[in-house]
Amino acid sequence: MRTPVIAIFDVGKTNKKLFLFNEQYKIVFERSARFTETVDEDGDPCENLESLRLSVFDSLHEVFRKSEFEVRAINFAAYGASLVYVDEDGKPLAPLYNYLKPYPEALQRKFYDTYGGEDTVAFVTASPVLGSLNSGMQLYRTKYEKPALFERIHYALHLPQYLSFLVSGQMYSDMTSIGCHTHLWDFSKNDYHEWVYQEGIIDKLAPIALGDQVLPASFPGNGYGVGVGLHDSSAALIPYLVSFHEPFVLISTGTWCISLNPFNHTPLTKEELESDCLCYMHYQGTPVKASRLFAGYEHEQQVKRIAEHFGQLSSRYRNLGYSRNIVAKLREEKNGPKPIGGKVSAFAQRNLSDYRTYDEAYHRLIMDLVDLQQIATQRVIKGSSVKRIFVDGGFSKNTIYMNLLADAFPEMEVFAASMAQATAVGAALAIHSAWNNRPLPNDLIELRFYAHNP
User: Fold this and answer.
1) I need a surface site. Which of 24, 86, 335, 447 has the fewest CB within 10 A?
2) Total-model pTM
C-alpha cells in the first residue's frame, strides 16, 4: 500500500526544506539544503534563485521516484518581503533582491511626501516603515531606478507564489504575503492602497487567490493539487488556530521573534507602529496583530561574543540548564545599561569581564532578551483577553528563556510548544480538505507548561 502524503517546501532564508507528511501529519520523509548566496548587480547578497528553482524540481523528481508514497498535494511556505520579477513565461528578469538591501533615502522621501507621510502610510497599511522590508517599496524603486526592467515585468510574485507557479504553471498573489508589512494593502478599505493604483503597480500584481485554494499541477506527476503558497509566519500560526480555541498569543522564535495575536482586533496605534508592530494576514483573510523583535539574530551574535571571551564553543549554551541562583544574583545588579531603542537588548553594551563564567554571561544575555520580549509581546496582548502564551521555534527548547518568560508574565499560562515544523504543517493544513479525508488530528502540538517562580 502506498502512503498518501502531502509534500511541503519550507523555504527559509538559511535552510530550504522539503517534507512529506502522512495523513496524521507525521513527517515520513525530509530533505534539507543550503545554498551559497549570490550577489545582485550592486554587489549586495541575494538568494540564488536558479539553485532554488532547480532544487524544487530535483526534490520533486526524487519524491515521485519513491514508490512507497502517493503524493496527493504540494504546498509552499517561504519567507516574506521578497519578490520575483517574471516575464509572461514566468522566467525571472532580475535577481531576488534581499529585503535587507539599503533603500535610497531620496526615493523613500519622495514616496512618503507623495502619499501623505510616513505615519499615514504606516497606519493604513498596518506596517512600520522598513525600507526594502516593505516589499511594495522594492517595486516602487524598480519603477523609478530601472524603468526598462519595470516595463518588462509581467508579474511581481512573492516568493511562495513563485515557487507554487513552478509546479502549477499559474501565477497568483496570496493574502498572507500581501498583508505582511508590504505597504501594498490598505487594511481600512480591505483593498490595495491607492498608491498601488496611482503608480500602475496594480498591473504588475497577479490576481489574488485564497490561502486554501488548490490548483492543478503542470509539473509531471499524477493528479495532485498545488497550493498557492503562504508567507511563513502566517503558516506557522495555522496549527495553533486549528488546535486551540481559547485566546492565545504565539511567540514564533527564529531569527525574528514574532508575537502573533489573532484575537486582538484593535487598530494599530502610531506608537505601536513606531515600536515595530504590524499586522500579518490570517490565511483566511483577517488581520493578525503582531510585534517583531530581531532577538534570534541578536542571540546568535552575542553567543559568539560570549564564546570567544570565555574560550568555549558557540554551541555550549544548548546544554545549559536554568539556574535560579545565577538569576537571583544577576537581578541584584543595579543601574546596568538600558536597551537601545526598544530593539536591541542591553547586553550589547555589557562588559563580559563583569561575569565570572560563561553560564553567568549567558543567563544575563537571556535575561536582557526576555526584558525586551516582555515589552514586545505586551504590545499585542494589550486590549485582548489572552491568558496563554505559546512559544515555538528555537527559544522554546531553551529552558533558561522559558523560565524567565514565565517570570515575565506571572498572570499568564506560558507553554513551550513543541511541534515539528509548525510552518510546514501549517502549509499542509491550509489545504487539508484537498488531499486528506481524515479528521484533523488533535495531538498536533505538544505543550510543556512553565510555572512562574516568584
Assistant:
1) 335
2) 0.85
104 and 209 part of one domain: yes
Do 212 and 343 have their domain in common?
no
Its domain, for residue 179, covers 3-228
- Spatial neighbors of 303 by CB under 8 A, at least 6 apart, are 314, 317, 362, 365
* Cβ-proximal residues to 338 (8 Å cutoff; 6+ apart), any chain: 346
Judge if 311 and 279 occupy the same domain.
yes
**Residue 222 confidence (pLDDT):** 65
Q: Are residues 201 and 244 in the same domain?
A: no
pLDDT tens figures, 171-215: 999 999 998 889 999 988 999 999 999 999 999 999 999 888 999
For residue 239, pLDDT over 90 is answered with: yes
Do 241 and 146 lie in one domain? The reply is: no
Query: What CATH number is given to the structural domain containing 445?
Result: 3.30.420.40
Q: Which of 207, 228, 249 is the last residue of a domain?
A: 228
Quick: pLDDT tens for 249-273: 999 898 889 999 999 888 888 888 8
Asked whether residue 214 falls in the same domain as residue 285, the answer is no
What is the domain count for the chain? Answer: 2
